[in-house]
Amino acid sequence: MADANGKFADVPVRVRSWGYIVMVLAVAFVPPTLSPLFVAWITFQGMCEFARMFIPEWKANPFVFLSMAMLQALLLYFCSYQEYLVLASFMCLGTALFFNYGLKVKKGAVFGLFFGAVACLLAFSHLAFIRSIKMDNNVMVGLKLIGYIVVLTELNDVFQFLMGKFFGKRKIVPRISPNKTIAGCVGGIGLTIILSNLLGYFLLPFQNFLYFSLFGLFFGILGFWGDVLFSYLKRKAGVKDTGSLIPGHGGLLDRIDSLIFNAPLFYALIILLLGN
Q1: Alpha-carbon distance 116 to 55, whole Å?
Q2: CA atoms of 13 and 65, how far apart (whole Å)
Q3: How far is CA 126 from the centre of its chain?
Q4: Fewer Cβ atoms within 10 Å of its own Cβ: the N or the C terminal residue of the chain?
Q5: 18: enclosing H helix or E strand
């Protein structure tokens, strides 16, 4: 009994942390004009966490990442999607050059910070673009889309975590993330497919249960691999968590890592399906 209690001791704290993230993201994206600022904050906090992971000896001046975040917010407000991607790509390249030639940090750290810039500027930024989607001038469409992908992605993590706790035995990527199991992954994705149909019925601007099921499958799988990717980076950096922002769950990146693939893919699919 003691072992069982120990095994599940962290479940309440971790589930509450997931709930906090869902609520914060939902509230932050309610006013469409604030979404670029919130995404810019994600970039600022995320880059600070990447810096602490890969160059802990460097006491990062937050002005560097604050400037990056402010420029990103301006681009999100005033540039088209295509223009933003081009300019943000140059910002990612500039980040690598700055840390490589300006601060002369190690090559591994340069790669880590370059990846961080790509994640924050090119992947997570799609949350702002999703929020900006309109249909017949209805701005609530974007809010519902944000609600769908954020809740689906975060609860996919919860499902995989809980299914692994209850039924997991065989490890799926033991060298990278030893707590992830085949049962947790498969069971979590199965529940995510069911959830996708429920959320899709109420939140997506079309009714197609085949699409809903495929969304649940794709985003469940990609959410898993997004989490694994960040686990790999943390192992390379020699840290357990990206930070300590969220009680019981480390840093911001620890909680939104699964969105790194899901947010861009969801935006692309919605634009394709809506014909925007």
Answers
A1: 13
A2: 30
A3: 10
A4: N
A5: helix 11-28
What pLDDT, in 10s, does the model give residues 59-104?
A: 656 888 999 999 999 999 999 999 999 999 999 999 999 999 988 8
Q: CA separation (Å) from 88 to 35, 38, 72, 116?
A: 17, 17, 8, 12
Q: Which amino acid is at 158?
A: V
Residue 127 CB neighbours (<10 A):
27
d(CA 165, CA 152): 20
For residue 269, give the amino acid letter.
L
Residue 85: alpha-carbon gap to chain centroid: 18
Q: Is residue 238 left, alpha or beta, with left meaning phi > 0 and alpha meaning psi from -120 to 50?
A: left
Query: Which residues are CB-contacts of 227 (< 8 A; sequence separation ≥ 6)?
Result: 157, 177, 180, 257, 258
Phi, psi of 245 (to 5 degrees): -65, -40
Q: Render pLDDT for 264-275 as a digit per residue (tens, 0 to 9).
A: 999 999 999 988
Can you read off the two tokens belonging to residue 232?
A: 């790999």
Contact in structure between 165 and 14 (CB atoms under 8 Å): no
Tokens of 154: 């975060």
Provide the CA 229 distance to its chain's centre, in angstroms: 11
Q: What is the CA radius of gyration of the chain?
A: 19
Per domain, the residue ranges of the chain are 32-132, 137-275
Sorted by sequence, the CB contacts under 8 Å of residue 226 that are 6+ apart come out as 257, 258, 259, 260, 261, 262
Is residue 43 within 8 A of residue 121, CB to CB? The reply is yes
Could you say which DSSP state residue 100 is in? I
| pLDDT 10s digits, 202-256 | 999 999 999 999 999 999 999 999 999 999 999 998 888 888 777 666 888 988 8
pLDDT of 2 over the 50 cut: no
